[in-house]
UniProtKB/TrEMBL annotation:
The lineage of its organism: Bacteria, Bacillati, Bacillota, Clostridia, Eubacteriales. It comes from Caloramator mitchellensis. Pfam families: PP2C_2. PANTHER family: PROTEIN PHOSPHATASE 2C, PROTEIN PHOSPHATASE PHPP. InterPro entries: PP2C, PPM-type-like_dom_sf, PPM-type_phosphatase-like_dom. The keyword Hydrolase applies. NCBIfam families: Stp1_PP2C_phos. This is PPM-type phosphatase domain-containing protein.
Length: 241
């Protein structure tokens, strides 16, 4: 598995509240993006706790779970518990939370876990497919037919999320798996990227540069404003492995 990642503070923020992780083993790879939110440095705290918790849980428990979807779900539920408990201990951290989107890659299968509006995409010769559904107010409007997908891209409340890790004591985690083929690419990103690039633009750049597209994607988002932190992880399944 070829993997590259980067997180960037962007052009306007004083703090990077995104957190990116990669974990590469002989038998699997694990990638994740967390986009924190909260006052002061609370978002940074939430994203780092959530991301490092899921990485540690997967590393320590990978061989204990036959059902890898359950592994991902339990890791993210634990991350929610840790972020929430931390927020209850310190006044300046109350209400903090984070998105969390992760992917466990094993041979010909990718297991995805998702909470919030960071996204996972599958990119291959067929095209680009958004694997995750945003847990956001605007996505709910799209689902009930109030607005179109095109209108959603520029909606003033497009960053209002309806589900996050750590905000409440319990969280619902979306999990699923897909089959992947040689040279298939999984891309996970925070909304700092998708606020500035269409999925067609992402597809064009990634198709050309593969995992090396990480820098170009972030540079383009920054050139268009970069008003948010920007994080991208790209994993490409090796040909023949």
């Amino acid at each position: 598995m070829y993997i590259k990642c980067k997180t960037d503070i962007g052009k306007s923020r004083e703090l990077n509240e995104d957190y990116v992780i990669t974990l590469i083993s002989n038998n699997y790879s694990f990638i994740a993006v967390a986009d924190g939110m909260g006052g002061h440095n609370a978002g940074e705290v939430a994203s780092s706790i959530a991301a490092t918790t899921v990485r540690e849980f997967v590393f320590n428990n990978f061989y204990n779970y036959e059902d890898k979807e359950e592994l991902i779900r339990d890791a993210m539920v634990l991350a929610n518990k840790k972020v929430f408990e931390k927020s209850q201990k310190l006044q300046n951290l109350k209400g903090m939370g984070t998105t969390l989107t992760c992917c466990l890659l094993i041979k010909d299968r990718a297991y995805v876990g998702h909470v919030g509006d960071s996204r996972a995409y599958l990119i291959n010769e067929i095209g680009i497919t958004k694997l995750t559904e945003d847990h956001s107010y605007v996505q709910q409007l799209v689902k009930n037919g109030t607005i179109t997908e095109t209108e959603a891209e520029n909606h003033p409340q497009k960053n209002l999320i309806t589900r996050a890790v750590g905000v409440e004591e319990n969280v619902i985690v979306d999990t699923f798996f897909i089959d992947i083929n040689p040279n298939d690419i999984i891309l996970i990103c925070s909304d700092g990227l998708t606020s500035y690039l269409t999925k067609e633009e992402i597809y064009q750049i990634v198709t050309e540069k593969k995992e090396d597209a990480v820098e170009d994607l972030i540079d383009l988002a920054n050139s268009r404003g970069g008003f948010d932190n920007i994080s991208v992880v790209i994993a490409r399944k090796e040909d023949g492995r």
